[in-house]
Structure formats: structure tokens, C-alpha cells
Amino acid sequence: MPTSKWPCADQNDISDQSAHQDLNNDTFDAFDTSDMSMFSSASDSENESSSDSEDEANGMLPDLTECAESIYSSLLDNDSELFSDEEDTKSELDIFVPIQLDPSSPPVLVVSTEIPIPTINCPAEPTPVTSQPDPAPLADGMHKKAPNLDEAKAALIDLTKMLFPQRKTGPGYKDPNLNPFVRERMQGMAGLLSMYTNSKSTMYGKWIAASQEVAIMQRRGETAYARRLRTWACRFIKDRTKVPANPYGKWNKSQIEDEDLSQDILQHLQSLGPNIRALDIVNYLNYPDVRKKYRMKKGISEQTARKWLQRMGFRWTLDPKGQYVDGHERPDVVDYRQKVYISRMLLADPRLRTYSKMGEENTPEERDGVRRVVIWYHDESVFYAHDRRKKSWVHKDAGAAPYKKGEGHSLMVADFVSADYGWLRGPDGRSARRLFRPGKKRDGWFTNEDILEQIKDAIALVKELYPHDDHIFVYDNATTHLKRPVDAPSARNMPKNPNETWGVEINELDANGKKKKIRMAGGMFDGKPQSFYFPEGHSKAGWFKGMATILEERGISTKGLNAQCKDFKCKEGASDCCCRRILYNQADFVNVKSTLEITCEAEGTAVVFLPKFHCELNPIEQCWGYAKRIYRMYEPSSQEADLERNVISSLASIPLSSIRRFANRSRRFMDAYNKGLDGKQAAWASRKYRGHRVLPASLMDDMEKAKI
Ligand SMILES: [Zn+2]
User: Fold this and answer.
1) How many angstroms separate the alpha carbon of residue 532 from the centre of ligand 1?
2) Cβ pair 677, 689 in contact under 8 A
């Protein structure tokens, strides 16, 4: 483990020798949240400025519940490039002089002692299997020789087909579904081949000059990138399967892509119970019969095993919210991030105040006279008296791990922060902050009612304190935040046929001790409201209409359709297989607003939900990190009063300039995603351009250079 990979280990944590030994022994069960700071890896500690760089770096994500990016990075073992930027590493190490880093401590492996660990006699010490390095792009010297014109023409035709696949029927093209980087490279190759082979081009027959021209057009390095282009093109001319690789594609070559093997492992792991370790895979692959079956000469390292776990859908769960960090690049999550979150946030962008990396306002002049928007980031975080927490590998299908109680006193804080004003506070100390003792409430968590009350207070406060601004509230994707009104249209429990008594059950008992029912609110179809109950004068006045009638009224025939497919497990992609599925997909059923949205909109404010697993987009996460860092410096105490006082004072200690830098960092991540980078690339870019609010024009070039 290269030291440089974990440059941001927290001094307090490392000095905890017992925890440290446990880490080495790999047999501990509860572990300090701060252990995770090892994985925080300062991948973006923004510590360029000398003034409070240490604060920044230390405040950076030491909280394991709250940092997708750090864990994300730490799991990407083969991503050493991400951390190999020597300059960055050096500066961080300079800052952390007093910290004793122990490069030998294994970073991520977590073991729950509650689960018996099977003992397996290893036939041999497993040797780490390192992934094959990408072939050096220029090793074959192909860039030197100009290709034959006819061959180049033929290759251009094929390349064009790949870039613009024809639809099977009708005109137009299909989306070739290429990674943006691969696409850019292929476009460059096509440009080169086209200039080189087109007799009308001034570059006709001029191989090297044409490649340089294209490199300039693509705003890339005239020499290095041009050479790469020529290499790629020549390889493609020789072999049509050779297209520039997605730098992440190499994972796909992993042995775990073997379905049988992954199924076998999965089954084995499932047999071990809900909590598993990377070591379980290592052990499994040391069974002689398993090795024989898969013709493996060697076992794998724990590092590789962790990679495999990841590939097989195992994720870190982060108690107490139980979110699976690596859902980060899940297609639906990415889709939401790009199409909903970023586009909504960018709408407000021209009306935001901006801040330098020193935290000073530097809003561009052209925004003068524009009514400002303030973004208030909301979040909840738990402070523990003993600052300890548990986590474990859990299969993603196992569901969220329930929040565990009894880890000493804890205090949940739910609050709002903005780059413009810091924490939401009145001069008289009023706030919308909620302090909450999770262990004392039955569900151990903030309810949707709590959330609604809190936002009402927050809205009243921002309107009073900052009436000249507009306000957006940003919440994470927790179910308590997304809750819809109880009577909102939902196809879930509807009967197919008319029913005299059907309604939505609510958490209130009637005189007979049964749950009370209320009418479901109506839907909208063709711009007109549709009641789900028969009107007065109808022979079944007041009855629930049933799915069939509701659909028929929308002009959708339900002839021959069942209420639902068995267990509502419809065929994948089916949209008209059963009444429930059809209704489920109706616009007014899909687009039900959450109570939080309804509340905010009624007050002339807006709410935007973060994409799942993207806590790097929420600067408040770093505020928690900063505050917890301070919090741990206080005298340990089991007294509840001390806990509360320490939490409040640590939150108050975050300088506004730091909050602004945290906000810049989130904005930078957003810019990276907006420019088409994935999570890993965004983490790299955010680190590379720390201090920037948006990424510079040299991004693509720099990524190319860094082989990102
Ligand atoms: Zn169905």
C-alpha cells in the first residue's frame, strides 16, 4: 500500500493504537468512524491556501457515513493513477508532518465478529494477482508509418458506421452508446482519416500533418495526442476490433466476469450470512477443487477480492442510513444526476454569488442587479459520545442495515448551511436546527413530519432574514425526505373492480379499533382532474371505481387484462401487461410530488433532491467532517449535556470561508459530471483543480496526459 494513497489519515485516529492494531489484525468489529479517514485519502482537501489548509484537510470527510467519494476512491484499487499526482501528495504530506502513517495497515477490510469465520486450510499463500497493465499506446511504433490510402478510406467508412449507427428501420441514427472519451477519440480518428483520404483536403496524403491538425481542432496536444491519434487509426485500419479503450474498460477483463465463477462465489458468500469479508473470497479461491474448476494457478489478493466484491454488487453500507456508496454509477442514479439534479441546479447558477478559494465574494459583474439565489443544503448527521461506529460488507440485496442503538449516547443534528450565510441562524440565535436523540425515539430517526416542521421553520427564517434572495433547499434522497402525501395517487393496492369501501389506510384507528381509511386524491388525465370514486347520482355513488374503470375512462382498454401479473413481477420492460402496471406508469401516478416539494413550492421556495450516493455534491457533509474533527478534541464525556454542548460548539467553529470552499468543491464536482466525467474521473478532476469552482478548459488535455 503506497503511503501516498492515504495521505490524510487523521492524527487523532492514528494515535489510537488499539484500534490500529485491530486494523492490522483484521479482526475488529466496532471501529472508529475516524478509521475511515484513512480512506478519505484527502482526494480533495482543498488545502492549497496556507491559512487554514489544515482545517480544510482535516475537516475533509473524516466521517464514514458521509463520504461517497473517499470510499469510492479507496475501493478503486487499480486506480493508483488517481493518487499518483506527486505534487498533490507531497503538499498533503507536508501539511501532515506530525502524522505517523502506517502504510502497512490494510485500509478497508472490515470484519464482524458476530459472524463465524470459516477456517479453511490454505494450500498456499495467495499471491496477489495484478491486473494486466494497459498496453503502452505507442509501443508498436504504428504512428510512424502513413497508411495506404485505400485501406484508410475503408477504415473511415467502418469507423463512421460505428460513430453513427444506422437505425434498422427508418432514417436517422442510433445512439452509439459510447463513453464520451472513447467517442471523442474515435471522432478524432475519423477526422484524421477523412482529412488524409479526401483529395479535396489540404491535408490529403499528409499523414502527420493531418493528425496534428485534428489534435489542434480537438484542443489537444499537437505532438503527443496527434501521435496517439495516428496509432489508434493505424490499429483500427489493421483490426476493426481495435478501438481506443475506455480507460475503465480494463476491469472488464477481470476473471470475475466469468459468470460461473461469480455465481459460485456469490453462493458461497451468501452461505456465510449477511456480513462478509473480502478475505472470504480469498479463502474460497484457495480451495483446491475451486482452483481446479476454474483453472486458477494462484489465489487472489484481498485487494483483488475487494474489487471483485464491488463488481459483483457488494457495497459498503454506511450505517446508520445504510446507503450503498457504489450505487454512485448506477445508470438510474447517473441519469437522475445528469438530467434532473444538475440541470435544475444549473438553472439557478447565473443568479448565485460566487466565492474565491479564500472565501471572498467574487461574483461576476454581469450578475449585478440580478436577484440572488441562495442554496441551503440540508442534512442530518449523528455525533456519538464515543464516536464509534460499525459497518460491514452487506450484499446489496439484503436491504439497508437497520440503525443500531446502544453505542453510547448519540445526538443527531439536522441543519441547513449555505455558502452565502453559513449556518441558517438569526442574529438572536434562532435557527431551524434540530437536535435529536436517535436512541430515544422508537424509529430512531427523523420522521417525515419532523422534516416538514423543520422546513417550515427554515422557510420562515430565510424569508425574514434574507427577503431579497430566492431560496433553494437541497435535500438528500432519504425516503423520509421523499415521502408523498398519504392520499396521493398510487396503484399499489388498488382493486381492479369497483369497491364500496376501498380507501387508503392511515395510521389512525376508528371506533372499532381498525385502521381508518380515507379517500385517495384524484388523478389528472388530459389536463383534467379524474376522481377515482363514482360521483353522486351514479348507481354506485361513492364507490371506488377500480383500476379497470379508471383506465377505461382514460381510453385504455383493459379487456383480457388481469389486475396484475403474478406478485406484480411483470416481464422486464413490459408496460401494458396488466392493469396495475399500466396505471403505475401513468404520468399523474409517476409524478406525484413529495410533501417536502409541496410545502416548499407553496411558500415560493424550491427543493431539489440530491442524486443517491453523491454526498460529494453536498458541502454540508464536509461541514460535519470539520465539526467532528473539532468535536473529537473535546474531553470525552458520557454526559448528555456535554455531548450536546460540544456538538453545538464544534458546529459553530467552522469558518465561513471554509464553508464557501466546501461549496466550491461541490460545484466543481457538479461541473465535472456536467462535462461527462464519471465518479472516478470527477474525483480526480476535483483534486487536480482544487480551488477552482468550475473545471478549466484544459480538462480534456490534462486527463489525457494523466491517462484518466
Ligand atoms: Zn404486469
Assistant:
1) 21
2) no
630 φ, ψ (degrees, to nearest 5): -65, -45
Which tens digits make up the pLDDT trace of 367-409?
888 999 999 999 887 777 765 333 333 333 333 333 334 445 6
Q: Is the dihedral of CA 179, 184, 188, 191 positive or negative?
A: positive
Name 384's bridge partners.
410
As given in the structure block, the three cell numbers for residue 229 are: 491519434
Q: In what order do the strands lie in the sheet with 323-324?
A: 275-276, 393-395, 314-318, 323-324
Q: What span, in angstroms and rounded, lies between the C-alpha atoms of 329 and 391?
A: 21
Helix, strand, or coil here: 93? Answer: helix
Task: Report which DSSP code applies to 308.
Answer: H
Cα 335 to ligand 1 centroid, rounded to whole Å: 25
The predicted pLDDT at position 445 comes to 59
Cell numbers for 295, please give them: 483453472
- Alpha carbons within 13 angstroms on the beta-carbon side of residue 328 total 28
pLDDT in tens, 271-291: 564 455 777 788 888 888 888
**C-alpha grid cell, residue 481:** 425526505
Q: Any bridge partners for residue 411, and if so which?
A: 383
User: Which one-letter amino acid corresponds to residue 534?
Assistant: F
Cα–Cα separations (whole angstroms), residue 226 to 85, 217, 358, 701: 24, 11, 39, 12
Rounded to the nearest angstrom, the distance between the alpha carbon of 579 and the centre of ligand 1 is: 7
CA 483 / ligand 1 centre spacing (Å) = 25
DSSP three-state, residue 489: coil
Ligand 1 center to residue 552 CA distance, Å? 17
Dihedral sign from CA coordinates of 233, 237, 238, 243: positive
Q: How far from 311 is each of 61, 269, 326, 443, 589, CA to CA, in Å?
A: 25, 14, 10, 33, 34
Sign of CA dihedral 651, 654, 660, 661: negative
C-alpha cell at 182: 472513447
Provide the sign of the torsion angle of the four alpha carbons 391, 392, 393, 397, taken in this order: negative
The residue behind cell 464544534 is 650
- What is the per-residue pLDDT across 299-327, written as a single tens digit (0 to 9) for each? 788 777 777 766 555 433 333 333 323 45
| Interval 72-93: pLDDT, tens | 333 222 222 222 222 222 222 2
Coil/strand/helix, residue 10: coil
First to last CA, the chain: 21
Angle (nearest 5°) at CA 183 between 178 and 185 = 145
- 257-260-261 Cα angle (round to 5): 65
For 621, counting Cβ atoms within 10 Å of its Cβ (0-12 exposed, 13-18 middle, 19+ buried), the class is buried
All cell numbers assigned to 418: 449555505
**Summary mean pLDDT of the chain:** 71
The CA 38 to ligand 1 mean position distance, Å, reads 48
Cβ atoms < 10 Å from Cβ of 288: 10
C-alpha cell at 301: 489478493
Could you tell me where the beta strands, DSSP code E, fall in 526-569? 528-530
Determine if residue 382 is left, alpha or beta; phi over 0 gives left, psi from -120 to 50 gives alpha, anything else beta.
beta
How many A from CA of 502 to the centre of ligand 1? 22
- H or E segment to which residue 317 belongs: strand 314-318
How far, in Å, is the centroid of ligand 1 from the Cα of 566? Answer: 8
> What sign results for the dihedral spanned by CA atoms 659, 665, 669, 670?
positive
**Contact in structure between 4 and 92 (CB atoms under 8 Å):** no
Helices (H), 164-258: 180-197, 207-217, 224-238
